[in-house]
Write a structure and sequence with these properties.
By secondary structure, the protein is an all-beta fold. 3% of the residues lie in helices and 60% in strands. Strands 1-6-7-11-12-13-14-17-18-21-22-24-25-28 form a 14-stranded antiparallel β-barrel. The chain has a five-stranded mixed beta sheet with strand order 5-2-27-26-23, with no helix packed on it. β13 (174-194) and β14 form a beta hairpin.
């Protein structure tokens, strides 16, 4: 069974929207499939997520006489998009070079300001986290079958978070703005292939990246160090936030099933266990801003088929474990199941346009602040869309 070269690229294009609502803050899935393509290659893509995340409040504080159990929480998940681009050059028969840009982690959410649980004074709890990755790669191919690669990773992180409502008790009114900060990590991996049967396997490790970012915090917490603490507040504080984006491993597999059909799979592990962000003002009251308790496992498996020289298509099933439950109020879902379809159109042999769509059934989750459960989020879902263009030169 010998496959035509274009068949080996089905995986690359048919489902660009692969990991847009993963556990923790994970978004892009950090694929390096573009770097493993034969010859010289470039691509650019965009993925969009439209989530619908609703729930009910379970806020109850007998000390201050607040019981908001059952208050309806309308859709708090914001639509968002992220982009990716890559270029790979086969410099010699044995050396390849690559550059990959993506936005690996992030969060976008805003609660209804009219709820007492997550709103106050006309503002709702909100979160916006943005990251960027630029990965440089060099690969060595001692034979046609093996490829060993590694390279540095440049990463930026920034955030803007506001906590409002009875769910946060004395922390309601807290703000933090984290300035964009850059840091560095690394990547290494290897791939094995048998081109004649479109067999390819790749294992890629990415290191954790430690960030020490400048931030501005604001809260109405009393300043107990003041002589008259009843009337003194901590107010605005400039501090340094320590956050380490997690290490991860991607395993990519594919094999030919017939002359125009491929089976593929991606397995991903992300070390979210013990991931914690505790800015200075929150640390005073012993509370974390973001915290995850479990590692994330995810898998995506499917089949791609070439119908003609111009058209290919695929379908896939996905699963994500989540990163522990209860979860943070800034992302109240616990993993998902997904079903996706995609198609690729190739007007000529050296370029293509591809698109994909996925439906995600989001896992039920209990939202927690500190040691108190404050919300139940059930029966939620999302739609993901992706588009990509690729060019061989």
């Amino acid at each position: 069974m010998k496959l035509k070269p274009i068949s080996t690229a089905i995986l690359l294009a048919t489902l660009p929207a692969t990991a847009v609502f993963a556990a923790g803050l994970d978004r892009s899935g950090q694929s390096i499939q573009a770097f493993l393509q034969p010859g010289n290659y470039a691509e650019a893509g965009i993925s969009v997520l439209d989530p619908d995340v609703k729930g009910k409040s379970s806020v109850k504080n007998e000390t201050i006489g607040v019981d908001l159990t059952g208050e309806q929480i309308s859709d708090m998940g914001e639509d968002y998009y992220f982009v990716n681009a890559a270029i790979k050059v086969q410099a010699t028969d044995k050396i390849s070079l690559g550059l990959i840009y993506d936005q690996p982690y992030g969060a976008d959410a805003i609660y209804d300001a009219n709820t007492m649980s997550f709103g106050q004074n006309g503002e709702g709890t909100s979160v916006e986290v943005k990251t960027q990755n630029l990965t440089a790669l060099i690969g060595y191919q001692p034979t046609e079958n093996w490829n060993f690669y590694a390279g540095p990773v440049w990463q930026t992180v920034e955030a803007d978070i506001k906590l409002r409502g009875a769910a946060y008790s004395v922390l309601s009114g807290y703000n933090i703005k984290v300035n964009q900060e850059e840091a560095y990590g690394w990547l290494a991996g290897f791939a094995y292939q048998i081109p004649e049967i479109a067999l390819k396997a790749a294992v890629t490790y990415r290191s954790e990246i430690e960030h020490n970012a400048k931030s501005k915090e604001h809260s109405n917490l009393p300043d107990y160090s003041s002589i008259n603490s009843a009337f003194a507040f901590l107010g605005n504080v400039e501090s340094e936030v320590n956050a380490t984006t997690p290490q991860s491993v991607n395993i990519d597999l594919q094999t030919g099933l017939a002359s125009n059909t491929l089976a593929f799979a991606n397995i991903r592990w992300v070390h979210w266990d013990q991931f914690t962000v505790s800015p200075k003002l929150l640390d005073i009251v012993g509370q974390d801003l973001i915290s995850y308790s479990d590692d994330q496992w995810s898998a995506n498996v499917g089949i791609g088929h070439k119908f003609s020289d111009k058209w290919t298509a695929s379908t896939s099933i996905g699963w994500d474990s989540g990163a522990g439950n209860p979860v943070t109020t800034l992302g109240p879902t616990e993993g998902y199941w997904s079903l996706g379809v995609g198609a690729q159109y190739s007007p000529a042999a050296n370029y293509f346009i591809a698109g994909g769509v996925k439906h995600l059934w989001l896992g039920d989750a209990t939202a927690r602040t500190g040691t108190s459960n404050v919300g139940e989020f059930e029966d939620n879902n999302a739609w993901a869309y992706g588009m990509k263009i690729g060019y061989r030169f």
